[in-house]
Design goal:
about 55 residues, mainly alpha, 3 helices
Length: about 55
């Protein structure tokens, strides 16, 4: 830790990020999501193309 603090802290933060999905309850994730669901549906290619098309 004294020789390489950046490496130690980056591993600790990475480990915390990897552990959070197992630690945080699903109900809490759904509470703080925008639409009340943990995941959103993948848009179709046509919807993406329509959204990227400039409006005239």
């Amino acid at each position: 830790m004294h020789r390489e603090p950046v490496v130690m802290w980056s591993c600790a933060i990475g480990g915390l990020g990897m552990a959070l999905p197992a630690i945080v309850p699903r109900e809490l994730v759904e509470t703080f999501s925008r639409d009340g669901k943990a995941t959103r549906a993948v848009p179709s290619a046509a919807a993406v193309a329509k959204a990227l098309r400039p409006s005239a």
